Amino acid sequence: MNSPQPVLQVSDLTTRFNMEDGTVHAVNGVSFDLADGEVVGIVGESGSGKSVSMMSLLRLIPMPPGEIVGGEAIFEDADLLSMGLDDLRKVRGGRIGFIFQDPMTSLNPVLTVGYQITESLKVHQPGRASELRERALDLLKLVGIPSPEQRLQSFPHELSGGMRQRVMIAVALACRPRILVADEPTTALDVTIQAQILELVKDLREKLGMAVIWITHDLGVVAGLVDRVLVMYGGQIVEEAPVDEFYAEPRHPYSQGLLASLPSAAMPGQKLVNIVGQPPDLRAPPTSCSFAPRCPHVFDRCLQENPTLVQVSATRRLACWLDSGRDGPNHGR
Amino acid sequence: MAVDAGAAVPVASVSRSRPVGNEVLVSVRGLKKHFPVTKGMFRRKVGAVRAVDGVSFDIRRGETLGLVGESGSGKSTIGRTMLQLEKATEGSVVFDGIELVGLAAGALRRTRPRMQMVFQDPHASLNPRMTVSSIVGEPLLEHGKSSSRERQERVEELLGLVGLDPTHANRYPHEFSGGQRQRIGIARAIALNPDFIVCDEPIAALDVSIQAQVVNLMEHLQDLLGLTYLFISHDLGMVRHIADRVAVMYLGHIMELADVEDLYGDPRHPYTRALQSSAPVPDPVVEATRVKIILEGDIPSPSNPPPGCPFNTRCPDAVDRCHEEIPAWREVTPGHGVACHLAHG
User: Fold this and answer.
1) Among the four A13, B130, B191, B275, which has the fewest Cβ within 10 Å?
2) B208-225 and A253-260 are packed helices; what angle lies between their axes, rounded to 10 degrees?
3) CB B39 within 8 A of CB B203
4) Across the beta sheet with A22-34, what order do the strands follow?
5) With helix as H, strand as E and coil as C, how does A138-189 read?
């Protein structure tokens, strides 16, 4: 799946929030590559740093209190984290499109759908008003919105949740992005509408050949959509694997716990397997494995040193003292 | 229609070893809840949101009835109307032989301890200015005659039951995580030894790894205390795990009701099939091969439902009759009811 020249190369991305009551270590040294046309799923629970790390790439976090402490994000031969703001603005919404979770708060309620789509075109690919309108119309057709001519004049509140999310996708696709970052875009939608949006994204990805970073907590959505899975916990990537290998043989104890806690994994009439304890407090600096307090396999080293993400096979990376550096089947499953 | 719906998921027969008899604890008949739509200074009634539009079902003592449906289908309104938190527009709710609709305030208050509710949002449903001890102890103060000493002991016992540290009784809700807060809400709900608990999306706001903890706790308490649950959720996977029987709602109507294995293994209503087919399966091999039913369009507005079957605007199988006549409820096999013109026994 990895082509020789990745479209995006993130290394050692570190983001902190300097709050009044201490520093929150939200993202701690995240590194990954994204191949052209690839769909990567970033899986994690609330507070795992999955959204903040992607927002940090485009410097969309509030600064202050946020602070990107270090790292590099190479996109089309330039570093997103160090380039000038003017250059970055050309990338945002242009070569890299963004879809957010809640379409109602990310669309402007007092502007028409048509205006909001052409706004992004105006900035990145200026043209005559009639041309822009024509392209907005094409985009609405592309994302499957019925009677698109009328919809150009509609305001966001006149559309249903699913239709709004389609508009968001149209806005994100307006400038033919090379990468689409989707932050839980279907979480607020009903399952039958979610199914429509997932089909749409799969279809568009094939048509437009863009790479997609899909942020979610839903392991079902990931299974049907992505090529590769990145699991985040405590602001770090703890496991990376091709999607089929991940579901067949998760190797990080946290990934194992997550998959085992799904109701579909429970045997008839048995209790669900759960991960004991609570998510980590990110105010503590990452000096030990953040999963250690909840890990069934924890031992001395986990409490003293934070495991780094290392290559454990041709296709997989893992951050776990128990398993890293070793290949082959794992404990516990 | 070629459907894989249930077959796509590994079949698990959910039967925890606990007795569920045939004794009916709650019986709902023809329940309707319409919210008026008003206009102008004099609040002239110009229409109605038909949130619940004539539903009938029984809940047996000791069982978990799952209630699934999409947002706006009326599933939360059913729960709230059953507990008389909303005034029913029409119909009857009989709880252990007592008709609750229209029951006098005093008599209703005496029945309240026996039926409780667990809410979706553990942030919004706990008063941030009250300590855990006073939140969990409040029902005891309202309905019990215990001394403060006895209350304190009972609160500690309840916190222990839901897996919280009793020494944290004097902390405030914000000092707890989402999962722990939901445990506090559960402790409050079981404080008065209820028979029946309406669980309104109790795990929807929680992370995956915490959902399993809370569901295990609820099952444990059900076994321990002989509770009866109405478990309202949009998570079909979790409902399959926890429920004995499942009702599927759409636009204020129950479309199908059956034992959990019948409903998932042999869904008869086109909406049930579509709903199951839409739910993503956490297995890339299954996802790559199964055929999905993707419904067109959105759920219609409950203030302006379509004539005939409520599902006819999105139904892949709809025939002329579906646009004219509301399908009658019928049992296709014993215990498996469906409201569809096209379903056969």
Assistant:
1) B130
2) 50
3) no
4) A22-34, A8-19, A66-75, A78-79
5) HHHHHCCCCCHHHHHCCCHHHCCHHHHHHHHHHHHHCCCCCEEEEECCCCCC
Tokens of A136: 């907005």
The string of pLDDT tens digits covering residues A306-328 is 998 999 999 999 999 987 544 44
- Name the closest residue on chain A to residue B314, using Cα atoms: A192
The model carries a pTM of 0.84
- Cβ distance of A224 and B287 shorter than 8 Å: yes
Report residue A321 as tokens.
Answer: 């003292």
In B, which residues are within 8 Å of A255 by CB distance? none
For residues A197-219, average pLDDT? 88
Report the gap between the CA of B107 and the closest CA in chain A (Å): 39
Query: How many of the other CB atoms lie within 10 Å of CB of A147?
Result: 9
Distance CA A265, CA A239 (A): 20
- Please answer yes or no on whether B12 and A268 come within 8 Å at the CB atom: yes
- Interface contact A217-B208, CB threshold 8 A: yes
Residue A291 has φ and ψ, to the nearest 5°, of -90, -10
- Do the Cβ atoms of B282 and A243 come within 8 Å? no
Asked if B101 and B89 count as a contact pair (C-beta separation under 8 A), the reply is no
Window from A189-193, B78-82, B138-142 with minimum mean pLDDT: A189-193
Q: Report, as an integer, the average pLDDT of B209-230.
A: 92
Block residue for tokens 């057709």: A141
Confidence check: pLDDT of B16 > 80: no
Instruction: Copy the structure tokens of residue A129.
Output: 């008003």
Q: Which of B137, B116, B94, B140 is nearest to B194 (CA)?
A: B116
- The interface pTM score, or ipTM, of the predicted complex is 0.79
pLDDT (tens digit, 9 = 90+) per residue, A16-46?
Answer: 999 888 889 999 999 999 998 899 999 988 8
